[in-house]
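Bit of a strange request maybe. I'm writing a small parser for structure token strings and I need a real example to test against, not something I typed by hand. Could someone generate the tokens for this chain?
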Amino acid sequence: MGSKPTAPTKCGEKDFSAASFVFHTPTAMSAPNPNAGAPWSESLQTLTRKVLEEGTSFHPTTGNVHLKHRDGHFGYLALNDLLARRWHIQPEPAGRIQQYATIDELLADGWAVD
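Reply from user aminoacidic:
Good idea to test on real output. This should exercise your parser:
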């Protein structure tokens, strides 16, 4: 007995059907950046900008976009913040939420998708 496909859900011009999302699984969550303090590569910064601008890539279980910082720690952007274009990063383990006005500020401070 198969399940019926569900109709796409749209909000404005965005398609929120499951097929429109790329599910992102973080890479080595426990492995710190071996180049801590150094800026992330141009390609990783470009990927981070794309993921945040498009708002369609997140972890399938948590709904978060997992991020890493150039100093070796980790955090995440909650799905509701991603969709609302609020750049509020929750550090892991729990700490003070870091808020950024733009993606450029977030990148300049050393965050990138993990």
